[in-house]
Design goal:
Blueprint lengths: L1 E4 L5 H13 L3 E4 L11 H6 L7 E4 L2 E4 L1 H12 L8 H28 L11 H19 L12 H15 L8 H11 L2 H6 L8 E2 L2
Parallel strand pairs: 1-2, 2-5
Antiparallel strand pairs: 1-3, 3-4
Amino acid sequence: MIRILGRATSGNVQKVLFLLEEIGLQYAREDYGRQFGNTDTDAYRKLNPTMKVPTMIDGHVTSWESHTILRYLADTFAPNLTGTTPGERTLVERWMDWLLASLNTPYVAVFKDIKNPAEKRGADFAAQCKDLVAQLKILDDHIADKTWFALDRLTLADIALAPIVKRCLAFQIERPPFAELTRWMAAIEARPAFAVAIGVKPSATASAA
């Protein structure tokens, strides 16, 4: 059985859980990271030298970095979630790479600082908010005439984006309504697999760790 090492509240763990729930694959998630204080150990470092989550163990295969795990799972168990040709795969995977290269920096900055009183926020908080809004506009513009981000079906692009975009749209910052992105997010939130991934409902396929 596939093991996912990572706390349930991690957005990166939630991406992997979303995929696993979507395809109905049995797995066990185990609490690792942050409050559990168990990633800075020799045993965990042997699995994942970054000491971060998630880490996936599937038999003799151990993998880390959430998007690498998503690609492995799709290639192995659910090829319909990615492209069937190199050209199709670029349409899917560019959004995964863009998320890490462009959206992640302002997302993490705002996520960390927005909980603080205004006077205790970093000097670059306003700039990070502005950048975040600019990145969300890219998503909103792209999805305007589409149901999914690539290939006219649910793919790894949607799965990777969903947990992070949900949090971005919930930030109490000044921004446009992003009606198209909000429409897409509502469709994602209506999927039972996503509800499980973010902890809204229990899993029917996960085993107790």
